[in-house]
Amino acid sequence: QPLPGAADTVRRLVLTGGGAGL
Length: 22
Prior knowledge:
- The chain is mainly α.
- Helix content is 45%, strand content 0%.
């Protein structure tokens, strides 16, 4: 199973346009 919070991280990447929020 994915690590805890992995789904949230993916959502952030998508919402930020692929990592613009990094």
